[in-house]
C-alpha cells in the first residue's frame, strides 16, 4: 500500500490540525510500502527538517504560502500532476477540495477530519453525499462517533464511515513530575489547589464560564495556558486575582503545567461543539487521560464517547456555573475520588496512542482497498426537502449572525451566562 499524504498548510506548525494529520501520517508511513507528504514550502531549505518531522520524503506543492485561499486552491490543483500522485494507491487528505480533485483525476481517497460538515454547512450536503459515495472515495475517518452519525443521517453507507479517535504521544509523559515540584516550577505554592486548562485561550472554548467559577472559588488557582495576546478572555481574567493567563507553550513546557494541576479542565460548555463547531472531542482530552491528573469536563455527546462520569473523569452539565463550582469543590476536596478517576483514565489511555490509531487506520485502508466499490442510490424527495429546509435555516443564520456554522438547535440550550463582549474587529482562530 502506497500513500500520498496531502496537507495544505506549511510546517512546522503548532496548530491542532497539523498535529493530528502529520502525527497520524508519521505513524502510518512505516505500515506502508511507500509514503510521501505533499505540502507547501517557503523554500527547499526547510525540506530536511520537515522530512525528519514527518518521517517520509517531501513532495513540494506548487503553491505560495499566502494568501491561504490561493495556497489551498493550488495545493489541490497541482497535486494531480505530480508523479507521486500516479504512483500512490490512494491520497490521504483532510481537505475536501483535494479529495474532490483526486477523485476527478482517477485516484482513490481516504479523508480524515473531525467536523460534522453536513450539520454545520447544510448547503454542502448534496455535494458531500455524492463525493463520499463515489466508488473511489474509500473511507471517511471521523474523529468522533458524533461526527460519524451526522454523515450516517445524510444517508451515506456505513461502510464509508469509520470512527477512529485521536491519540497522544506517550513520550511527552515519560518522566512525570511530582505535583509539588511542578507547582514550584511554575511559581505556585505546594498547598495551593490548581485548576489547569490548556489549549487556545479564546471566546470559542467556554472559558467565560471558567472565569465566573473562579470568582466563586477564590481558594483555587486557575491557570489558563494558551494565550496568543489580548482578547476578550484575557480582558475578563484581568480583574480576577486567582486566574492566571499563560501564553502559548511548546510541548515540553506545557507538560509542566499539566503536572502542576490538581484538576485538568475541559470547560463544560456547549459552545465549542454546538455554537462555533471548532472543537469536536478536543485533542487535549487524550493527553489528559494519560497525565495522572483528574479531569473535569462537560456532559456533551462527543466528550462522553471517551469520558464516563465517576469512572475516568468528573462530568457536569454544560453551561451551568454552579455545577462547575460544585464539581471543582468535590474534586479538589477528595483525594480518594481523584485517585480513582486517574487510575481508570490511565488504563483507558493505553488504547489512545497515535501508534494505536495508525494501526487501526492501516487495517481499515487495507480492507477498503481490497473490497468491492460501495454502490449507493439517489436521494429521495424527502431528503431533498430536508436539505432545502436546512439550507434555508443556514442562510438565515448566516445573514443574522455572520457565522458560517449552523448550531444544532436540538442540543444548544439558551445561554445561562452572559457572553463575552467581542471587539468589532476581533477574529480568533479555532483550535
Automatic annotation (TrEMBL):
Pfam families: Glyco_trans_1_4, Glyco_transf_4. Residues 53-172 form the Glycosyltransferase subfamily 4-like N-terminal domain. GO terms for molecular function: glycosyltransferase activity. It comes from the Bacteria. PANTHER family: GLYCOSYLTRANSFERASE (PTHR12526). This is Glycosyltransferase subfamily 4-like N-terminal domain-containing protein.
